[in-house]
Each structure stands twice: as structure tokens, then as C-alpha cells.
Amino acid sequence: MPRTPVTVTVTGAAGQIGYALLFRIASGQLLGPDTPVRLKLLEITPALKAAEGTAMEIDDCAFPLLTGIDISDDPNVAFDGANVALLVGARPRTKGMERGDLLEANGGIFKPQGRAINDHAADDIKVLVVGNPANTNALIARAAAPDVPAERFTAMTRLDHNRALTQLSKKTGAPLSDITRLTIWGNHSATQYPDIFHAEIAGKNAAEVVNDETWLAEEFIPTVAKRGAAVIEVRGASSAASAANAAIDHVHTWVNGTPEGDWTSMAVPSDGSYGVPEGLISSFPVTTEDGAYEIVQGLELNAFSRTRIDASVAELAEEREAVRGLGLL
Ligand code: NAD
Ligand code: LMR
What we know:
Elements: E1 6-11, H1 16-26, E2 37-42, H2 48-59, E3 66-72, H3 75-78, E4 84-87, H4 99-120, E5 126-129, H5 134-143, E6 153-155, H6 158-172, E7 179-180, E8 183-185, E9 193-195, E10 200-201, E11 204-205, H7 206-210, H8 213-225, H9 227-235, H10 241-256, E12 264-269, E13 281-289, E14 292-295, H11 303-325
EC number: 1.1.1.37
Function: Catalyzes the reversible oxidation of malate to oxaloacetate.
Keywords: NAD, Oxidoreductase, Tricarboxylic acid cycle
């Protein structure tokens, strides 16, 4: 018996992440090889034609799991019946734009999208915000969706998590599959804190295996935290395929569960854990099972970690104050 298709809405479908993401969703990599998918694409009106071009190419792949593609410039249509929503489209910072301008411009996108999710999405909706500033955009969307359980709104730090895994693997020579329990804390920004103090390499404490505080503070953390800017510098455009890959990983893990003994990093609404003010959408170590996640509890944080987590969380609190001041919450 074929399963009922899962409706996946993707915003910013004509953008570069969209192009790297949609084919993978349609091929079954987001939800698994047994789950049929219906795609709903949201774009702004001038980009609808480009989205149609991408949809033509998706059709031409003849993906057996894909049951259809709809394209719209109306959030109320695009989120209708959505089970999974990937909010990728966002307003990039342009020349002369202040931080407040950026937050305001994105408020104009994520507030109506949050409302449309509230009014039209399926009861089991899961939302991943990729568009930057991802954590605060997720906060805006969540605030506009009071009827949706807050925990369904998440933001992406899985790309940071994957970047940190690779840096740690390169430093130690350990295969990626041996590394577990790495954590990204805080904001998807340069203040984020990639934490190896609880990570393990083949069961041994990663910080002890590395045993190099200078590398940790002066190479590992800045390399991971500033990797997005470094890719822009070298590639001439922001990360696209790696961001799409992380979005697939995030939702796949949320739906299918974390492996026994391991966890992942997701930015989720804080319940006050680890002193992060309630409601801020901050990255934590999380385990997932049966489509739900839980923040890992009881980790002891040393002073080095505490200072860095506090700095990133303070930035999130400032962003929340800024969007509150703009009437977006
Ligand atoms: P892009 O400019 O190539 O594409 C963005 C698309 O969004 C465009 O096609 C645009 O028309 C569309 N869009 C704009 N406003 C929209 C709206 N209101 N509704 C629907 N679509 C809308 O950008 P990209 O490279 O695909 O990146 C998208 C976002 O992802 C950016 O904000 C980028 O900074 C962010 N990003 C986040 C991470 C992360 O780890 N969280 C990583 C990489 C990129
Ligand atoms: C990334 O981490 O690659 C992006 O968030 C960078 C960006 O500014 O788009």
C-alpha cells in the first residue's frame, strides 16, 4: 500500500540553496525511500518563472516518490497542508543596510509566513528556518503562529555542526563516523560556540584526545564560526550545496531519530535549559525520536564553555529586543 504523500513546502525555491535542495527532497533523501512527497514551492512574484524552470527539471528526473509540484507566490497557498516547511528564502543584507533594516526586512517575510503556517499548515507541521538571521527569523515566524506548538519552529545550526565534525576529524585523523556528541551552542552567527568538551572520538573524550587549547581557541572555534564568511570569500557566493545538505540532515534526523548514544545540534525554543532564557531559539545538543526532540540535560559546562555560550545567547537576546522594538513579536 503506498503511504500518503508528505507535503513539503520550500520557500526561496528559485534560489541557490533551493536548487541544491529540491532534487534531493524529491528523490527521497529528506524523508526516506518509502515516503512519497508532494512539493509546494513559494517564491516572490518576479522569481516564479525561475521556480517553474526548476520544477520542469525536477519533472524531467521522473522521481518515483514525487507525487506533484505546486508553485505559488502566496504563502496561504504554499503552506496549505504542509507537514514540513523549509523556510529558505530571506532578504540578504545589501550595501548600506544596517542590522535593524535587515531584521525589519526579514520580519516582513517571516511574520506573514508564520501566520500562513498557523492558519493553513497540517497539525503535525515541522518548520526549519534556514534564511538568515535564521534563529531570529524562526522567532518571528513562531510568534506569528500562536496555534502551532512552539517547539515545531527550529532554525539550522546543522551546517555548523557538520563543519565542526570535519575540522575535528582533520585535526585528529579520526574518521567522521568515530566522532559523536559534538554540540553547537547559541546563534548561527560568528558568536556560535562549537563545543568538543562533551564530544567523543571512538568513545574517548575529544578535548583530551586533541589536548591543544591553543588550537581549540584560536583555530577550531573561529574556523567553524566564520566558515560561512570564508566560503563567500573564496566561492564568491554563500554556501549552497552544503547548506542544502545540512537542511536535509536536520529534517531527516528530526523525523528519523538520532543514533543511540549520539546527539545532534538544532536551534530550538529554549525551555530555560543551561540558563538560556526561555523562548530564545538557541542551538542545543538534542536527541530525536519518533519525530520529537529533547534537549540533552545534565551536561557540566566548564568556565571556557560558559563564557562562550553566554556571549552567543546575549546576542540572541539583543536580536529579540530589536525585533520586539520593531513590533515583530
Ligand atoms: P538566494 O538569494 O540564492 O535565494 C533566495 C531566494 O529566496 C530567492 O530566489 C528569492 O527570490 C527568494 N525569496 C526572497 N523573499 C522571499 C519570500 N518572501 N518568499 C519566498 N521566497 C523569497 O539565497 P540562498 O543562497 O539560497 O540562501 C538563502 C538564505 O539562506 C540566505 O538568507 C542565506 O544567508 C541563508 N543561509 C543560511 C545558512 C544556515 O546555516 N542557516 C547557510 C547558508 C545560507
Ligand atoms: C553560512 O553559514 O554559510 C551562511 O549563513 C553564510 C551567509 O551569510 O549566508
